[in-house]
Amino acid sequence: QVQLVESGGGLVQAGGSLRLSCAASGRTFMMYAMGWFRQAPGKEREFVAAISWSRGSTYYADSVKGRFTISRDNAKNTVYLQMNSLKPEDTAVYYCAASVKPTTIATITYEFTYTTWGQGTQVTVSS
How many CB atoms are located within 10 Å of the residue 28 CB? Predict the structure, then answer.
């Protein structure tokens, strides 16, 4: 199994930046991809960004393209989400997720792809 621990959330003003981290432990050699999802109050959880673990290919939701960057450090088994130009609508609980199943371009943005989830970290953007 894989365990995930997120960090880096907090309160920031609109236009500011935050970097989230997600450290994986356990059977990390089984990971095919890692992703970030978020859930705002009263809304369903939605895809934010994902990265394939071997190739490093990245995928983004349209709402964050050009503002957020996902990256990984294979040696540290850690994935990062650099969030710039934050907007109040980015306020949500952000969840890190890992997949130990083979992923494809068609599936990497979907929740069902991911087998392990972190506890979530709150990001609040004030206007």
Answer: 18
DSSP character at residue 101: S
- Mean pLDDT by runs of 10 across the 127 residues of the chain is 94 98 90 95 97 94 98 95 98 97 90 95 97
**Tokens 């890692």 -> residue:** 34
DSSP, res 31: -
d(CA 105, CA 4): 23
Question: Tokens 């109040």 correspond to what residue?
Answer: 88
Exposed / middle / buried, residue 53 (Cβ in 10 Å: 0-12, 13-18, 19+): buried
* Token output for 117: 């989830």
Please give the full DSSP string across 44-82, using - where no structure is assigned. --EEEEEEETTT--EEE-TTTTTTEEEEEETTTTEEEEE
CB–CB of 127/114 below 8 Å? no
CA distances from residue 77 to 87, 88, 105 in whole angstroms, order as listed? 29, 30, 22
